[in-house]
Amino acid sequence: MGEFELIQHYFASQASVRDDVELGIGDDCALLNIPAGECLAVTTDSLVSGIHFFADIDPFALGHKVLAVNLSDLAAMGAYPRWVSLAITLPEANESWLAEFARGFHALATKHNVALIGGDTTRGPLSVTVSAKGTVPARQALRRSGAKAGDAVYISGSLGAAALAVQQRIHNLHIPDDALQTCQQRMDYPQPRCELGLALRDIASSALDLSDGLSGDLMHILRASGVAAEIELSTLPVDPAVVQSVTPEQALQLALGGGDDYELCFTVPAEHENRLHELATSLTLPLTRIGAITAGTPHITWYHQGKPVELHINGWEHFHHGETGKTS
C-alpha cells in the first residue's frame, strides 16, 4: 500500500467520530469546533525505537502507549481529551504490524472517546509522534505553579513497576513470574488518569504526570510554584510487585527515579482533602498522601518515619543517560 492507502485502511476507516470534528482525515488540515468559553490544551510527544521503547515491542502495546502518554499530559492539566493526530515513521510497510499498532491505538482512543483527526506516514527508522488536543474551561486548568505552603502532596496509583520491567529487560534480572507480568503490563500499557484529572480541577492547586520519576518531576512543581516540600518515604505507594522483587533500597530508587509511571502527582489545600477519599472510592484508584508543601526555596526534604534522610536520586533526563531501551 502507498501512504494514502495505509492511512485510509488502518487509520481513517477506524477513527472515532465526534460531533466537534468539522472535518477530519482526508484534507490538508482538520477543522475542529472548540466549545465556547474553553481553552485548547495541546501536547506532543515523540517516541523513538531503542530510546523510548524496545525495538521488539508488541505493536498493539506500542499503539496503546503512544496515545496513553499524551492523554496523561492532558489529564495532568485537567483537560477533557477530544482529538489526536499521529505521525509515524516506518522502516517498511509491514501490514500485519501496522494492523496491530492501529488496533491498539484505536482501542484506547475509543475508550476515551478521542477522535483521530490527521497525521502523516513516512519511511525511516521506527518512531511515532502523537499530538493530543483537549479542552478545559477558561481559568480552570491545573498547572504546576499553584502549590502553596500547607498543601498536601498526593500520588495516584503506585510507583516503580514500569521502571523495574525496563531494568529487568536490560539486565536480565531474576524476579518472580507474577511480579514480572505486573511490571511488564505497567511498562507496555500505562493507564492515563483522565477521569482523575477532570475531577481534580476544583480540588487540586497544582498537578503534573509522572513520566521521569517522582524526585525530578515533583521539582517541576516546586520551581514553578516557588515552594519546597517535605516527603515521607515510608508512605510512598511503591508497587507490591517491586517490593517483592528487589531490595528496599532498589525499590526506592525505582519509585523515585525510575520513571514511566504516568500517575498524577498533585497538591491539595487542607480544606479539600476530605473529598479525596470519596474520589478514590468512586474511581477505584488509590490516592496516597506522601507529604506536604512548605515555604522556602525549591527543594525536597526527605524523611523516613519522621527522621530526615539524605538521598541522591535523579529522574530520567534525555541525552544524559546511555541505556538504550529506557522508556520516557
Automatic annotation (TrEMBL):
One of its GO terms (molecular function) is thiamine-phosphate kinase activity. Mg(2+) 4 binds at residues 28, 43, 73. Mg(2+) 1 binds at residues 44-45, 120. ATP binds at residues 119-120, 144, 211. It holds the Pfam family AIRS_C. Pathway: Cofactor biosynthesis; thiamine diphosphate biosynthesis; thiamine diphosphate from thiamine phosphate: step 1/1. It catalyses: thiamine phosphate + ATP = thiamine diphosphate + ADP. Gene3D superfamilies: PurM-like C-terminal domain, PurM-like, N-terminal domain. Mg(2+) 5 binds at residue 212. Transmembrane segments: none annotated. Keywords: ATP-binding, Kinase, Magnesium, Metal-binding, Nucleotide-binding, Thiamine biosynthesis, Transferase. Residues 26-136 form the PurM-like N-terminal domain. Its EC number is 2.7.4.16. Substrate binds at residues 52, 260, 316. Mg(2+) 2 binds at residues 45, 73. The keyword Cell membrane does not apply. Mg(2+) 3 binds at residues 28, 73, 209. CDD domains: ThiL. InterPro entries: PurM-like_C_dom, PurM-like_C_sf, PurM-like_N, PurM-like_N_sf, ThiL-like. Reaction mechanism of ThiL seems to utilize a direct, inline transfer of the gamma-phosphate of ATP to TMP rather than a phosphorylated enzyme intermediate. PANTHER family: THIAMINE-MONOPHOSPHATE KINASE. Catalyzes the ATP-dependent phosphorylation of thiamine-monophosphate (TMP) to form thiamine-pyrophosphate (TPP), the active form of vitamin B1. Belongs to the thiamine-monophosphate kinase family. This is Thiamine-monophosphate kinase. It comes from Tolumonas osonensis.
